[in-house]
């Protein structure tokens, strides 16, 4: 039997999220406040008894001069993805609601894991001269239910969105991420999982006198200056300072510890800074920034280790370092980032990726064309 989909209040949405171990930070009501170019709506899925059994944050982007929208559910919705009647019971009512709302196309990111590679498997893949992409390397584990979900989506007319640029980074959310499992592990075990280089660098930063502290909203301009320098170095377009200020205000208004800022100090100068997000048992390293100066004191390792310690103290089951490239080409400038994240001893995780359902094919094609012109040469944001 089809579920009923209708708008719900922020409080209803938050209550559902709070009752689960975690959902993506992009599926909480406050995320809509971070995106002023989009109109946000909380959706609820109601069963026969009138109880909320699923939620979704949908972001509606208007087409210029038309009352038609692209509907986007980043890393969502929060529904039963394993249900055999996923399409008929869960997704079709959502499409019907969004069509009536004026959507010409729907994009979503099922939070469904496909494969995982251990840090050792990633290291072996990087060292293998024949491996071009992470997806070509032998995974450590495969999630048995994922192919069935993909099959159901394809059969219903959903299309897998293009992976974006050659680096595996899309204009939407990353398909490949790096996560460190914390559940059931002591801090000593997590530290033991770090590779030798990481442990050495943490010791080196301590010896050099690097101090990692938590910052407040007044420190966001300091973070942003480093972030702009990082963007120049790593060839991506930075977000403006007001974006992070809005993020801080919106997320921490919803929950006082939703967003944190960390700063690595050395000899009176901030050398690295990062934002950290928490929803339930899932902690994300969200945005990172550093200067090229005094790299020998290893501020990034020091900062990440402090964040990991704090995440563990918060009771995190997962410490998520977010997007990684899936290309293993030595010439790729993002390979260093993959190596850095793999040093944590975690695992590379492949999700099902983002999927589109064009409700109006003509408008959908026109919008895709518009986005490709607008975003040409720009590496997508990962938050």
UniProtKB/TrEMBL annotation:
SUPFAM superfamilies: Acyl-CoA N-acyltransferases (Nat). The keyword Transferase applies. It comes from Streptomyces antibioticus. Gene3D superfamilies: 3.40.630.30. Belongs to the FemABX family. It holds the Pfam family FemAB. This is Aminoacyltransferase. PANTHER family: LIPID II:GLYCINE GLYCYLTRANSFERASE. One of its GO terms (molecular function) is aminoacyltransferase activity. Keywords: Acyltransferase, Cell shape, Cell wall biogenesis/degradation, Peptidoglycan synthesis, Transferase. GO terms for biological process: cell wall organization; peptidoglycan biosynthetic process; regulation of cell shape. InterPro entries: Acyl_CoA_acyltransferase, FEMABX, PG_Glycine_Bridge_Synth. Coiled coil: none annotated.
């Amino acid at each position: 039997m089809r579920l009923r989909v209708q708008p719900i209040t922020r409080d209803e949405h938050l209550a559902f999220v709070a009752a689960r171990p975690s959902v993506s930070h992009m599926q909480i009501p406050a995320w809509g406040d971070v995106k002023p170019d989009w109109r946000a709506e909380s959706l609820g899925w109601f069963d026969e008894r009138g109880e909320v059994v699923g939620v979704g944050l949908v972001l509606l982007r208007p087409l210029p001069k038309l009352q038609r929208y692209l509907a986007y559910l980043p890393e969502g919705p929060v529904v039963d993805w394993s249900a055999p009647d996923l399409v008929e019971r869960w997704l079709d009512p959502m499409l019907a609601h969004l069509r009536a709302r004026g959507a010409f196309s729907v994009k979503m990111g099922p939070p469904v894991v496909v494969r995982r590679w251990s840090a050792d498997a990633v290291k072996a893949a990087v060292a293998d001269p024949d491996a071009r992409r992470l997806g070509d390397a032998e995974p450590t584990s495969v999630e048995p239910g994922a192919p069935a979900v993909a099959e159901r989506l394809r059969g219903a007319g959903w299309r897998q969105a293009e992976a974006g640029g050659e680096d595996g980074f899309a204009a939407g959310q990353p398909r490949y991420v790096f996560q460190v499992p914390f559940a059931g592990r002591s801090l000593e075990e997590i530290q033991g999982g770090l590779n030798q280089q990481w442990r050495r660098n943490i010791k080196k930063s301590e010896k050099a006198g690097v101090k990692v502290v938590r910052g407040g909203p007044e420190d966001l301009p300091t973070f942003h200056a480093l972030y702009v320098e990082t963007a120049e170095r790593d060839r991506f377009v930075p977000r403006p300072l007001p974006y992070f200020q809005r993020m801080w205000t919106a997320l921490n208004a919803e929950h006082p510890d939703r967003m944190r800022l960390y700063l690595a100090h050395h000899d009176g100068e901030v050398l690295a800074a990062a934002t950290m997000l928490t929803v339930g048992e899932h902690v994300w390293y969200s945005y990172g920034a550093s200067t090229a100066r005094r790299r020998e004191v290893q501020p990034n390792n020091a900062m990440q280790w402090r964040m990991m310690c704090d995440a563990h103290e918060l009771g995190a089951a997962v410490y998520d370092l977010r997007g990684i490239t899936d290309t293993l080409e030595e010439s790729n400038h993002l390979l260093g980032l993959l190596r850095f994240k793999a040093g944590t001893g975690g695992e590379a995780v492949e999700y099902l990726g983002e999927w589109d359902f064009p409700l109006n094919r003509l408008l959908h094609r026109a919008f895709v064309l518009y986005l490709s012109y607008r975003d040409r040469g720009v590496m997508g944001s990962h938050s």
